[in-house]
Amino acid sequence: MRTCELTAVSEFTLVERDLPTIAPDEVLVRIDRVGICGSDLHYYQHGENGGNVVEFPHVLGHEAAGTVVEVGDGVSRVGPDDRVAIEPGLPCGECGYCAGDDTYHLCEDMEYMSSPPVEGALTEYVAWPAEYLYALPDSVSLREGALAEPLSVAMHACQRGGVSDGDTVLVTGGGPIGQLVSEVAMARGAETVVLTDVVPEKLALAESRGVDYAVDVTESDPVETIREHVDERGVDVVLESSGFGGAIETTTEAVKRGGTVVFVGIPLEPEFPTDIVETIGQEYDLKGSFRFSNTYPKAIEGIETGRFDVDSIVTFESSFEDTQAAFDRAAEPEEVKGVIRVSDEL
User: Fold this and answer.
1) Is 126 found in the same domain as 199?
2) By the 8 A CB rule, do 112 and 149 touch?
3) Is residue 299 part of a domain?
């Protein structure tokens, strides 16, 4: 089978590998679509992400969907020819986090697709446990199925922020996660959503997807926009989705006293936006949001019903042979989401 290996920083090589064998609880999936995530770009450009270092060669890609080719003897959840989305995290199943209702994503022994040393989905076939595969309805494309992963990240972030009816929300960053976080916040009943970025194309996309205010921070102060047009006290919830220092600093300036700030984007140079005294006096809730748990069924249902429009964040799709060019393009500021077409299924 063809596999796209990251063989050095900023270098992919298309190689031949043996077809994987499957265990009784596993499924052989022919990979059809793989989304390019920001973490993939970090690995591609720097050879590491958040301190996790690549040992070359390595296979990237964890936003994936495909078609079932073969199932293990113990599998009844899916069958041959089923179109499936792949949940990319495999928890240990034995620790206290795995025993919780919605905390398995915090498992310290999690094996996450494409996160070294676990290899990813930029390959023609993947063997994966059936427990973490989700059949796609006929109306949901394989590309949309692959994007259930970033949608799940957004759903978990909004859950962490407690976004609910009538809330005012600031989303910093107009990349794929920021775009989806905004949409999920609106679906959860947010009254007003403000999104910030510096790229006109991303701001225009956010406006077309329904945010109330898309603020170019090179031209306007988002805090002033909030005070003037939303609430002079600030917003109820800030969802930081960019990882950039200036946006991180804005979070505690924009949130009202007693409000909530959720950090989703991973910064290259982490700095805390406030101090203990201010946190006490303003009574902020400062939270992190890491991956997700038990979100795939609702994510897929939301795509099927039209509650979530993941397809509109895709700005280009490339062939498997053009993976390196696709990663270079995905790094351009105006691009939001690139998708690799590993096969030609729809």
Assistant:
1) no
2) no
3) no
* Backbone phi, psi, residue 230, to 5°: -115, -65
Nearest residue to 246 via CA among 276, 222, 228:
222
Helices 176-187 and 200-208 pack at an angle, to 10 degrees, of 20
Number of domains composing the chain? 2
Segment 245-288, tens digit of pLDDT = 999 999 999 999 999 999 999 887 777 777 889 999 999 999 99
Helices 245-254 and 222-229, packing angle to 10 deg:
30
Give dist(CA 252, CA 309) in Å, integer. Answer: 30
Q: What is the per-residue pLDDT for 346?
A: 55
Q: Is residue 346 part of a domain?
A: no
Q: Is 64 inside any structural domain? A: yes
- Separation of alpha carbons 9 and 56, rounded Å: 9
Structural domain including 126 reads 2-147+310-341
Residue ranges for the chain with pLDDT beneath 50: none
Taking the C-alpha atoms of residue 63 and residue 143, their distance in angstroms, rounded to an integer, is 9
Residue 6's SS3 state is: strand
Kindly state whether residues 216 and 129 are assigned to the same domain.
no
188 vs 165: CA distance, rounded Å: 6
Q: Are residues 39 and 98 in the same domain?
A: yes
Do 196 and 249 reside in the same domain of the chain? yes
pTM as predicted: 0.96
Listed residue (331, 340, 264, 315) closest to 44, CA to CA: 331
Residue with tokens 């590998």: 17
Q: How far apart are CA 330 and CA 58, in angstroms?
A: 19
Contact between 136 and 158 (Cβ < 8 Å) = no
